[in-house]
Design brief:
Radius of gyration: 25 Å
CATH architecture: Sandwich
Distance between the termini: 126 Å
Shape: globular
Mean pLDDT: 81
Strand content: over 45%
Number of domains: 1
Length: 144
């Protein structure tokens, strides 16, 4: 007696791959522009990028990490030499998993804003925050 074998097709559900397993983003260009609102750094990639940023001191700088992004060129130094920014540096910080790091060297601490639109991530630097403390005035004493 021969047994009948039926072909069974196993279908695996297609799940979206987690970010760490997706194809890395290729970082194409870094542009530094000075506009009426200050310095803006634009990072252009092959697809949208995730970004993580932090402010560091001694010396003052803003560090932007781009996880799962690859800068395939030699480390780059963009001398800006303005009153707002000394220089911008970009390099592959870690190869596996890939992380590209952009460092904005500052003459003094300042706030920043990260804005992503499509394949471009922008770093907008704000003017330094001035110490806006007002002097304390002692009440005048009346003479009696």
């Amino acid at each position: 007696m021969a047994a009948k074998i039926e072909a069974v097709e196993h279908v695996q559900p297609t799940l979206q791959q987690p970010a760490t397993l997706r194809q890395p983003v290729q970082v194409h260009t870094v542009d530094v522009t000075k506009g009426p609102d200050g310095i803006e750094i634009q990072i252009d990639g092959s697809s949208p990028m995730k970004s993580e940023a932090m402010k560091l001191k001694n010396p003052d700088r803003v560090v932007i990490d781009l996880p799962n992004a690859i800068w395939n060129r030699a480390p780059k130094l963009i001398p800006v030499k303005t009153t707002d920014v000394n220089a911008v540096r970009i390099a592959l910080y870690r190869a596996d998993p890939p992380v590209t790091r952009l460092v904005v060297d500052l003459p003094e601490a300042r706030d920043y804003e990260l804005v992503s639109s499509g394949n471009i991530t922008s770093v907008k630097l704000h003017a330094p925050t001035a110490n806006k403390l007002q002097p304390v005035r002692e009440p005048m004493q009346s003479k009696r």
